[in-house]
Amino acid sequence: MRILPSNVRILCNHRAMRASRLLSILILLQMRGRLSAEALAEEFEVSVRTIYRDVDQLSAAGVPIYAERGRNGGFQLHDGYRTKLTGFTAQEADALLLSGVGAAAQDLGLGPDLAAAQLKLLASLPPESGASAERVSARFHLDPVNWYTRADASDVLKPLAAAVWNERRIRVRYESWKAVVERALDPLGLVLKGGVWYLVAAVKAAPRTYRVSNILEMQSLETAFTRPRRFNLSRYWSEWSKEFETRLLKEHATIEVSATGRRLLRDTNAAAYEALAADHKPCKPEGWVRARVPIENIDSAKRQFLRLGADVKVIEPPALRAAITEETRKIAAHYKR
Q1: Does residue 150 fall inside a structural domain?
Q2: If you average pLDDT over every residue of the chain, what do you get?
Q3: Rounded to 10 degrees, what is the CA torsion of 293, 297, 300, 303?
């Protein structure tokens, strides 16, 4: 087999990446309409100058793409133009079939549509690609819900998914931790996290996160809303969840834990386990370690550490030690009767 020189391989890779980006730009313009050079540059993490060169190459290839100047300008395809470059590679088909989480699709009311889409996809692929995709779907299944729990799908989930898809404004009665409130929302997307559904919706153009099971009532309005062009659901969720965890775990406790306790902690308190794994010191008795771990508050930490029984000892804060002591006293009293 002939091995290409390194400079030739780099050039080939560069051309392949550019071809992939050109196709992606074309599909994005087809899906989203007008997009600015800055928005496309941010999407593909390249310079604005590179985007202009890509657009020139698309235009030279016969793609009817034009630019509008001004504050709300950008690149756009001529009305009615749609690309026919919709074929899937075997790897892309595998990924698509692997990404469909059956229970989630059922909760959203998309179960039959998902099954039909998968059959159409398999039928449209070359024989060898279809076989590969079917092998993946037959051998890998994603179940995002923890053991002994069920996804907390509510009655509003299906109409909520319809509102998200059709970009219809909604009015909800929502039970927050403070009170029950009524709000008009622009539903931007739904996220399934550990078996729990969350709605990401805009209030006065600012995205916020709501737990779907806390929506008591929902009304889909006739008013349509304009989806923010630069909003990316995956990126928003990643940033929001990190900020949420930081806000939630704002206090700390010092604990000593046995080897058995560490294994239990891994399954019951991931944040504490990660902190302990990153930094700990050996202590007595042998096999025990001491570490400073994040906690949400005294009450939640008390309940989490009590699940470890005698395999954990809280050193500080004193309020947490006192809370655990009082709780164990009450537990012992039950068995003295």
Answers
A1: no
A2: 80
A3: 60
Selected residue with higher pLDDT from 90 and 298: 298
Q: What is the pLDDT confidence band of residue 81, given thresholds at 50, 70 and 90? A: confident
Place of tokens 């068995």: 335
For residue 235, report the phi and psi dihedrals to the nearest 5 degrees.
-65, -40
| pLDDT tens digits, 144-179 | 677 766 666 678 888 998 899 889 999 999 998 778
Tokens describing residue 20 = 């992939």
Q: Cα dist. 304→207, 224, 320, 330 in Å? A: 32, 45, 11, 17
pLDDT tens-place string over residues 288-313: 999 999 999 999 999 999 999 999 99
Predicted confidence at residue 326, as pLDDT, reads 95
CA dist., res. 269 & res. 273, Å (int): 6
Give the torsion through C-alpha atoms of 55, 56, 57, 63, to 10 deg.
Answer: 70
Question: Taking the model in full, what pTM does it have?
Answer: 0.58
Residue 254 shares a structural domain with residue 328: yes
| More confident of the two residues 88 and 26 | 26
Q: Is residue 85 domain-resident? A: no
Left, alpha or beta for 40 (phi > 0: left; psi -120 to 50: alpha)?
A: alpha
d(CA 257, CA 127): 56
Does the residue 145 lie in any domain? no
Domain with 166, as residue range(s), is 157-236
What was the pLDDT predicted at 142? Answer: 64
**Domains in the chain: how many in total?**
4
Within this chain, do residues 36 and 66 fall inside the same structural domain, yes or no?
Answer: yes
Q: Using an 8 Å Cβ cutoff, are 327 and 264 in contact?
A: no
Q: Do residues 262 and 286 share a domain?
A: yes
Residues 6+ apart with CB under 8 A from 170: 160, 163, 184, 185, 187, 201, 218, 219, 220, 221
Task: Read off the DSSP letter of residue 287.
Answer: T
User: What is the three-class DSSP state of 225?
Assistant: coil
pLDDT of 267 higher than 70: yes
